[in-house]
Write a structure and sequence with these properties.
heterodimer; A: 406 residues; alpha/beta; Rossmann fold; CBS-domain; 2 domains; 6-stranded mixed beta sheet; 4-stranded antiparallel beta sheet; 20 helices; 22% strand; B: 327 residues; mainly alpha; MetI-like fold; 12 helices; 72% helix; globular; disordered C terminus
Chain lengths: 406, 327
Amino acid sequence: MTALRVDGLFKVFGRHPAQAVDRLRAGASADDIRATGATPAVIDVGLAIEPGEIFVVMGLSGSGKSTLLRMLNGLLEPTAGTVHVGEDEITALSGKRLREVRQRRISMVFQHFALLPHRSVVDNAAYALEVRGVDRRTRLAAATEALAMVGLEGQAEKRPDQLSGGMQQRVGLARALASEADVLLMDEAFSALDPLIRREMQDQLLELQARLGKTIVFITHDLNEAMRLGDRIAIMRDGRIVRLGTPESILADPGDEYVERFLADVDRARVFSAADVMVPAATVLAGSPPADALEALRAHGGSALAVVDGDGRLVGVVTGADLRAASGDVAAAVRPPAARVAAGTSLAELLAPAGAGDAPVAVVDDDGRPSGLVDSRAVLAALAGSAPDGRVPADERTEVLEGSRG
Amino acid sequence: MAEPTAVLAAEESSLPRVPVGEWIDTAFDWLKDNVDPFFDAVATGTEGAVEGVTDGLLALPPLLFAAILALLALFVRSVVFAVGSLAGLLLIQSMELWEPAMDTLALVLVATLVSVVVAIPVGIAAAKSSRVSAVVRPVLDLMQTMPAFVYLIPAVTFFSIGLVPGVVTTIIFALPPGVRLTELGIRQVDRETVEAGHAFGSSPWQILRGIELPLARPTIMAGVNQVIMLALSMAVIAGFIGAPGLGQIVVTSISRLNIGLGFEAGLSVVILAIFLDRLTSSFGERRRDGGRRSWLVRRRTAPAVGTPVVAPEAATPGIRPTAGAGI
């Protein structure tokens, strides 16, 4: 069961929108439509968003991402196509039924917080429940709990303008959480915050998400943010989704030049993890003779082997040179890995150990069993990107960004 | 029913004469003949209301009432305002103009009340619908710029002279800024905040009550303030058609060329005006707000009500210091 399903969604502003949709379906380009005086904002978007997923829609301003988001909860009516929240077809609802879905199923966090300046923080957080008609005691209790969740204990009686931007957005988040909706729409929620606070909020969102497992649709124009938060990312351009996939798959295979140019600025070291760059470890028992180990290394390829004890736990690593120089058994030649890390460790954290010495970094599971080895060349290759000349000169890049319609 | 006579001899105008004046005459005659009971009812209601308010204002001895108003001034604004109000009101009393001043005040209060009750809903409707706005705007233009003396005439034909036509013309003259500023205030409410209301499933009524009206309040109150000021200026002109109060004193002093009396009455109007302006503009002030102050809002020396006292240990680092509350 998908949490949110979007089928053949169009939004055209301006004159004769329905005709514009027909023409777009028949293959007209966005520019053709603009020439007639209509503005296509979202063109033929189809999505299936799974429960518990953070789905990021990423695009430059004017790419249609905010319009898309506003059709998910019916703030904007699509020109064509349908949106389902769970079983309910949002696009078929109106009036009271639509308000009910918004009250219970789907909530929203706004770029500029959109708090009510004349109400206290806790009353703001309780807004969704108040609208629903929940009695004051219950809703204040729920709001207080939501405020605690976002780290705003003790701020309940303040006014929003007494808080910093980051804290105001936490109130916005608490308001959305207090409504207990399963689906959370976040419209450039962190874009108005300064970079340090933004990072902090991203961390907090990931942490909350690990606990609450909401379905989140997150809009951003910041690709690093998209890569950091998204389980999947949809990249929009001129109203269309031009690429959809996991952050890693998009980085590894941008698909087209537009996306590739976009990716030039991504901090790859934070997107890729040890698991993405490791080679599966070939293991050898500490007690085996070096000749057998050399044979295994040759058969497996690569430059080193993981040495394990009788329980399969990592003892250390050996390289081919170590083995050739070894006398006695493998245990005599073993050396400690440059570091032991979990599979999810980001490349950024691998840089220092991988560069430190000849020994590879060992990736181990929770029980200490080796799952792979990472050598420094693999780290560098991942950072360089799959395309050898992935980087675009700065001036050319600006041109691309501007050329893609403001 | 006099033919409207051209003031300037039309020198063989090439355009046909459009008999606007005759149409207006005909329309008013029709109204007078057919809707008279309605006007009678309006007259009775208005008269009753204004006289009731006047009696109320005159029920207390002037000195006591002046002291109460000064206390009100102290409560909503400052010591300076309170002292100034008391001095001004006592001056009115000492000039023996207390009673006409209260007549005028009663007329202004009733006219303001009616204007506000009409203006705010119309303003909201105009903010919600561009079509309503397009219809309302020229009507407001007409009400504001048509010379006030011109609609004193039909007011007299409907209500004869006295208090009632005074109230009616005052309402017509004072209403427009109430509508305009209500419309402006509602239209200026942050779009995203209204969107948030919709996103959490608020009904249109919940959005109006809970979001739009509170956020538009400073602007709407600026409109109410303007309504009061215009009502006061019109209430004096209404003296020409027999409305009681300071306006009549002014008319008398003009007919007698009595400079001193004219100034005394004029000064009393000014004192009432300043008192009402400062008082109502204090109500419009948003407590503890950051940047959004209307140009009408001046100064408030008392600390903003409800500024929370934060115990030092509760003050989390990273809280922006509150922008000078209420200064």
